[in-house]
Amino acid sequence: MNTEHTNLQDALSAKQAAWESNASEEQKEMTTENLDAIVATHFKENAVNVGDKVINFTLKNALGECTNLQSVLDNGPVILTWYRGGWCPYCNITLQYLQNSLPEFKKYGANLLALTPELPDKSLSTSEKHDLKFEVLSDVGNKIAKQYGLVYKLTDALSEIYQNKLGLKNYNGDDSSELPITATYVIDAKGIVQYAFLDADYRKRAEISEIIDVLKTL
Predict the structure, then answer these.
(1) Residue range 41-59: average pLDDT?
(2) What are the C-alpha distances in Å from 139 to residues 29, 114, 117, 199, 207?
(3) Residue 116: φ, ψ to 5°
(4) Going along the chain, which residue ranges are E strands?
(5) Strand runs labelled E in 44-117
(6) What is the pTM of this model?
(7) Do the beta carbons of residue 77 and residue 107 sit within 8 Å?
């Protein structure tokens, strides 16, 4: 893990700055247009938020093993987070920071679950690459993300780039060009959301220190 930056957001901002120094004006405009389109959906008004009872689900990990959210909650608080895929550098940075923070999460009795629309074999590659020791669950078709109000569709211009240059279909197994908001929730053992990070910009993520501060209060 890159230890140059103490905070996750500092590392993400450094990555964004590096991208912006090389990206064309057209690329920057397309990214901005896509973020504006997400904001225009007012997704925060419909998404699961602080004070809400979470929606239970059962999903499989990369090895085909099922994980049920309620069963995990029976053992204590849960940090529930979404990432776009192993092709996303911002997601990879975040996963590394989360992995590094696992001992701290465990100190407060919390388990971490990460959801991705990636097909199981792709999520397995991501888990192995980063040596992740928490559950990575395949939410194929963004079915659970939709229930949580966290799905958006890429603009046509950006969708074309993601499909042609990144091969998004190969990761997710469909042509929907739908991705999840990279949300993070801290859920208490009763299944109530005590913290929600909801931002249209995938380059911004829940700060580790904020997650821990909430866990301390549970």
Answers:
(1) 97
(2) 30, 10, 5, 20, 23
(3) -145, 145
(4) 58-60, 66-68, 78-82, 111-116, 135-138, 151-153, 178-180, 184-187, 193-197
(5) 58-60, 66-68, 78-82, 111-116
(6) 0.94
(7) no
